Structures are given as structure tokens and as C-alpha cells.
Amino acid sequence: MTDTKQVKLSKPITYAYKGENVEASFITLLPPTAKHIHLTGLIKSVFQKNAVEFRQNQKLVDQVADAAESQQKEGGEKEVGSDDVWGLFYMNPDSIEQVMIAGKELMSSGLFLIEGEVKLTKPLIDELSTEDFEKVLGEFMANFIVASLM
Amino acid sequence: MTFVISDPSVVVNNEPVGIVPGTVKFTEGLGEQMMRAQSTGNGNVDQIFSQDVTTNVSMVSFELYNDIDSIELARVWKTNLNANVITVTGTDPTSGKTITRTFSKAALLSDYEVELGSESTFTVDFKSLPAV
Predict the structure, then answer these.
(1) Does the beta carbon of A104 lie under 8 angstroms from any beta carbon of chain B?
(2) Would an 8 Å CB–CB cutoff place A112 in contact with chain B?
């Protein structure tokens, strides 16, 4: 598991910084702590439930597991990514909203920093494009939630 | 049908702020203009028009309930000097239209007064660059 992770935004957002509105091009992700277990636990449980329910789609489950494992090893060739994680969540559409709501709460908890400096807040999350929202949250889950699960 | 906006959202330095409803006021910061007449003789006049750009300053104010969080928040804004950004957004629920004004380089110039009482509120009054 890495200490921090930077995710580039495909559509920059504006945020207040030192009295001016400036454009943000990336978001820095910090690892969660025990303070966030009510949210990370929920996401883990949904992920695990999906993994168990959809064992027949073994290829995707294995792909995520292998990627997470190789990421933990130094010099691992393949990294688990946002698409891998969302792929597993999308296999059970009923849980997507639950994951996104918990994810949105995590995003405004101080673990997501705009340009590594300013806390991502709810008004700023609302500015993110759907694509960037999923990408940022997916990378967070891939790096700090699913990776620790495998 | 038109809808009067009375409960806009106020965001200060990226954080949404809870305010007393119906207390948001702002000026566009477009400045004051002056019009005078100059005589062209025989009772005729011409117009002299000028813009006083020194008044191109916006004001945005609103009231807060005097709970501890709001009092502490206002203190942070005051100590930020002019490094605050305020965004006011109003939405017409009938048409979905929105109006947004952003006030950059905003500062609380006056020493705002905090009144402690069960029904009290206090007003914060920012001055900033002209609204955009």
C-alpha cells in the first residue's frame, strides 16, 4: 500500500486558495485511519459481498486480487486501478449508490487534498465531473481499501 | 412566474456556511459614477460623466447564529486578512436557473460585534474585489 497517491483530473475544477479562485488539476489521496472505518468498512463489505456473489466471474475477481497483490510487492508490474475496482462493483448495480454515497462522505473527510494542499469539500466534490468522481474514488478504493483486503 | 431567491448557499474558502435565512446582501462592486453638467453657453449644457474606480469594491454580508463554530469561523476569516473567497449561489427551483457571484480577495475590514444571547445573531461584512 502506498502512502499517498495523486490522481489527475480530466476536467479541472476551481477552488479558493489564498483569496483567489484557481484551477486544480490533480487530487492527492491520503490513506484512511481508524477514524474512517465506518465508511471504509462499508465499502469493504460491499466489495467482499460482490466478490463472493460473483465468483462465477472469476477472471475479474482474480484480476483485482492479483493486481492488488503485485502492487504490494516492490517492483510489481501491474497496479490495481480504478476501473478494476468499479468493474467489480458494477457487477452488482444495487450496491453502487451505497458505495458512491459512502465514498462521497470519505472524499470530504480530509483524506482528499486538492493539489496536495486544500481539503476537498462538498461544494468542490459537486464540481467534479462524473468521470473524475469515479476515477478519484476508484483510485482511493484501489489503493487504500481493496488493496488491504486482498 | 418568477421566484424570489431568499436562501442562497454561501461558501467561504470552499466550505459551505450555515447562515441566518434572508440575510445575504452584496454589491456588484461596479463602482460609483458621477454626472455633472458643463455649460456650453446660452442655457445649454453638456454632460460630463465619470467613473470613480476607487469605489470598485464589492461588499458581501450575512448574519450567523452565535454558536461556537460560527464565532470561531468568523475569527478565522478575520485573521485570514484578504485571503478569503466567498461564493453566493441562488437557485430558482421553478426554472432551475442559478445566479452565482464570487468575491475574491475578501476581508472582514470592520471589527464585527458578537452579541451573546439566546436570540442573537451577528453580521459579518466582507469587502472584496468586484464580484464575478
Answers:
(1) no
(2) no
Interface touch B104/A20, C-beta < 8 Å: yes
Residues 6+ apart with CB under 8 A from B16: A121, A122, A123, B9, B10
| Residue B82 near chain A (CB below 8 Å) | yes
Residue B71 to residue B92: CA distance in whole angstroms? 30
Question: Does the complex come out with an ipTM higher than 0.85?
Answer: no
Determine, yes or no, domain membership for B2.
no
| Per-residue model confidence as pLDDT tens for chain B (132 residues) | 778 888 899 999 999 999 999 999 999 999 999 999 999 999 999 999 999 999 999 999 999 999 999 999 999 999 999 999 999 999 988 888 999 999 999 999 999 999 898 889 999 999 999 999
Contact A124 B83 (CB under 8 A): no
Range of the domain at B96: 9-28+52-128
Residue B14 lies in a domain: yes
For the stretch A76-119, pLDDT in tens is 555 667 887 887 788 777 888 888 999 999 999 999 999 999 99
A20 to chain B: nearest residue by CA? B104
Q: In chain B, how many domains are there? A: 1
Residue B108 placed within a domain: yes
Q: Is A15 on the interface with B (CB under 8 A)?
A: yes
Closest-CA residue to A91 (of A68, A59, A123): A59
A149 neighbors A84 (Cβ within 8 angstroms):
no
Nearest to B105 among A20, A119, A124 (CB): A20
Residue B37 lies inside a defined structural domain of this protein: no
**Whole-angstrom distance, CA of residue B14 vs CA of residue B17:** 9
